[in-house]
Amino acid sequence: MSEQTQLIPGNSLLTATPEEGRALALKIARLTIKITQPDAEVRERLRPDYANDASMLIAIGQTVAAEFSIIAAANNYWSWFSPSEKD
Amino acid sequence: MSEQTQLIPGNSLLTATPEEGRALALKIARLTIKITQPDAEVRERLRPDYANDASMLIAIGQTVAAEFSIIAAANNYWSWFSPSEKD
Amino acid sequence: MSEQTQLIPGNSLLTATPEEGRALALKIARLTIKITQPDAEVRERLRPDYANDASMLIAIGQTVAAEFSIIAAANNYWSWFSPSEKD
Amino acid sequence: MSEQTQLIPGNSLLTATPEEGRALALKIARLTIKITQPDAEVRERLRPDYANDASMLIAIGQTVAAEFSIIAAANNYWSWFSPSEKD
Amino acid sequence: MSEQTQLIPGNSLLTATPEEGRALALKIARLTIKITQPDAEVRERLRPDYANDASMLIAIGQTVAAEFSIIAAANNYWSWFSPSEKD
Amino acid sequence: MSEQTQLIPGNSLLTATPEEGRALALKIARLTIKITQPDAEVRERLRPDYANDASMLIAIGQTVAAEFSIIAAANNYWSWFSPSEKD
Fold first, then answer.
1. In chain E, which ranges are continuous DSSP H helix?
2. In 3D, which of F63, F84, F79, F87 has the Cα closest to residue F18?
3. How confident is the model at residue A87, as a pLDDT?
4. How far is it, in rounded angstroms, from Cα E28 to Cα D68?
5. Do chains E and C touch, with touching meaning 3 or more CB–CB pairs less than 8 Å apart?
6. Does the pLDDT at position E4 exceed 70?
7. What digits encode the pLDDT tens for the residues C12-70?
8. Would you place residue C2 in the very low, low, confident or very high pLDDT band (cuts 50, 70, 90)?
9. Are A27 and F59 in contact (CB under 8 A)?
10. C80 at interface of D, judged by CB pairs closer than 8 A
11. Which single residue of B68, C54, D14, F13 could bond D49 by disulfide (Cβ 3.0 to 4.6 Å)?
12. Of F5, F14, F59, which is closest to E55 when you measure between CB atoms?
């Protein structure tokens, strides 16, 4: 993360690929948690609460989808990008 | 899934059909859970929690809808696609 | 539902009318539940849980709205369609 | 509601005014509940559950907002409409 | 609120400024609660339930954001508006 | 915050950078809480409730994402902006 930003890594929503865009969505979601609960020790203590709870894992998924929706639109859904290999 | 990606299979939001787009939405939703809870054993243990709980099944439905919304927009709602047979 | 699809009936988001679009939203929402909990008996057992719970009925409403949002956009909100009779 | 429809009154998302659009959003939200729980007596029994519960009233608000979002877009936000009197 | 409307004050989504648009979002959210629970006394009794509950305050925030999203789009994000003074 | 506004700081959704847009999303989310629970003492008392609860931290993240979605669209996703340094 660039030193000047706390909330949006690199101060940009643009990424080269969908995979990088999704990773950015995850980072932005985590940074919102971090600014709301700045104590790293507390955040670490909360980890088993959500990582072992199906309901919270689903809620995290909804949050990441919401962030990714913004980033995907910002990147025009990476329509110019051709992955070299698709599965 | 292409080997280089962890979050977006094939590193692309584009699919040939709506059915494939929906399947991609499901995969992306699962990959978000996987990166948040990387332990396959724990994820397996959580399965009966959500698969037998109406409330969580509904929440999963909301998550998949959110992911599909992005993919459908990326594919311009597959407006060019004519399924050979409709029900 | 066409035999080839499990998630999107008819493999298309296009419908002739808003009513059909809404019905499709309901079907797609149900198919997501079905693929997450494939056991019909379990799904049947869960029915009274949500059908008698105000909170879950509301959550189902949110899910269907989310699916319908995608379908309505795909159909350009059926702006070309004139229902013969309005209430 | 026109007799032919169960989910979208009048089989149209178009309304003359924002007020009518909001009323339609409420109706569509209720019709989704109705098709999920068709027993009028049960629905009536659930009414005090949500009408006296702050949390559910908020959730209903979210559902109506989601439905209205679709209807407002369908009507291009009624940008052509001039209410005779604003408060 | 204009006397003719119960759900959308002034029967319009258009406002002169973002601040007024946000205030409208709050009003519309409250009017949805009001039509679902028309008894003012009950609504007053529920106030401490949500005003002292972090979880419900957050949910109210989500509802207002959803309403504001519609209003902001209706006003093309007030892109023509220049506030005289920014903080 | 400019003195004339209670809900939208500076009475504008436009920001120079994504980072500033995200900070605005956080502020707007907090101002909604503030107008719903105007008592600063109560808000302070609720802080440990959400700051130590994984579920609420996730819900806050969803709210901020919803606000940011509006601001990002208002700013056309800052597509004109080139951060001097990306991470």
1. 18-36, 40-51, 54-74
2. F79
3. 43
4. 11
5. no
6. no
7. 999 999 999 999 999 999 999 999 999 999 999 999 999 999 999 999 999 999 999 99
8. very low
9. no
10. no
11. C54
12. F59
pLDDT for A86 equals 47
Given the cut 0.90, state whether the ipTM is greater than it.
Answer: yes
- b/e B21-60 (16+ beta carbons within 10 angstroms → b): bbbbbbbbbbbbbeebbeeeeebeebeeebbbbbbbbbbb
- Give the best residue of B53, B77, B84 to mutate against chain C (max C CB count within 10 A): B77
F46 lies within 8 A of chain A by CB = no
Does B51 fall in a domain?
yes
Inter-chain touch B70–A66, beta carbons under 8 Å:
no
Contact across the interface for A57 and B70, Cβ inside 8 Å: no
Asked whether the beta carbons of D7 and C19 are under 8 A apart, the reply is yes
**A62, two tokens:** 């909804």
Q: Chain B closest CA to A84's CA: distance in Å?
A: 9
Chain-chain contact of A63 with F66 (C-beta, under 8 angstroms): no
The minimal CB distance from E60 to the residues F32, F69, F74 is found for: F32
Within 8 A of A49 by CB-CB distance, chain F residues are 54-55
**What digits encode the pLDDT tens for the residues F10-59?**
999 999 999 999 999 999 999 999 999 999 999 999 999 999 999 999 99
Give the nearest chain D residue to E49 (CA atoms).
D54
**How many structural domains does chain D have?**
1
Please check whether residue D14 touches E, CB under 8 A: no
For residue A13, name the pLDDT band (cuts at 50, 70, 90): very high
**CB-based touch C/F (3+ pairs, under 8 A):** no
d(CA A38, CA A43): 8
pLDDT of res. D1: 41
Rounded CA-CA distance D26/E7 in Å is 10
The tens-digit pLDDT sequence of chain B (87 residues) is 445 689 999 999 999 999 999 999 999 999 999 999 999 999 999 999 999 999 999 999 999 999 999 999 999 999 888 786 444
pLDDT band at residue F81 under the 50/70/90 scheme: confident
F87 within a domain of the structure (yes/no) = no
Which chain B residues are within 8 Å of A72, Cβ to Cβ?
13, 70, 73-74
**What is the residue range of C49's domain?**
17-77
A58 within a domain of the structure (yes/no): yes
- Residue F47, domain member (yes or no): yes
Residues of chain A with C-beta less than 8 angstroms from the C-beta of F51: 36-37, 42
A53-68 burial, b if ≥16 CB within 10 A, otherwise e? bbbbbbbbbbbbbbbb
* Residue A54, token pair as written in the block: 């199906």
Nearest CA in chain D to C72: D70
pLDDT bracket for residue E80 (50, 70, 90) = confident
Partner residue facing E63 (CB), from D19, D65, D81: D65
